[in-house]
Write a structure and sequence with these properties.
It is a single chain. The protein has about 120 residues and is an all-beta fold. The protein has one domain. The chain contains no helices and six strands. The protein has a six-stranded antiparallel beta sheet, with no helix packed on it.
Length: about 120
Amino acid sequence: MGTSAVYTPYLDKSMELSVAFSQGCSAEDCKQRLIGLNFEYGMGYSQFIGEWVFNQWQVLNFTEGHLSSSGDYVEGKYELGPGLPRCVLGESAIKKSTMARVAARPGITGSSGSKQVSATI
């Protein structure tokens, strides 16, 4: 099992010179928060892998105050025997985002979410 996290400014200082940048604010005010978890488990010929990531950006002059997205992935595999290929029991990927609420605003795009599920044998 593994974890990762970061909390840091995501804008370059040169952005402060832009006319679109809020007066009295600095690039340091726009922080990004990222949290991730992953796991892998195997027993015999079976293997299970999964991960989850949450990402959030503080945005100036934005009514919600931030944009965020999260996603996860789960996969199961089974090896038929030594030297034989693995077959994927199933996998799923889910992505969720708050960016869809602001997609109507000029210059901002996003998606409300997607889900992909597949099984291959």
